[in-house]
Amino acid sequence: MSKKILMADVRVPESPRVRFFARDDSAATKMKDVTDQVVRLVVEELEDDSGYCVLLRLDDKGAIVWKTKHPSVQETKWHVEFEYGLPEDKWQAYKD
Description:
The protein has about 100 residues and is mainly beta. The protein is built from one helix and seven strands.
């Protein structure tokens, strides 16, 4: 189980530091770059006392574009700052 704790709206940089690809059987390469679909980030804290959390990257409809697991909330925030340039003070408490 996990609990959503933080959220932030983001804009993917013109030259992203990280790119995400998803399977696309209609494309010649069978892969599609979905990096620019990310508009919102949500941090889910795992409820297993491990300290780990999951970073969800969502599109404008709220669908998951990509997710990654990180060893702590702080490490997640640092990763997001590296990836998107989002400063720590731009995070908000999660609300539906």
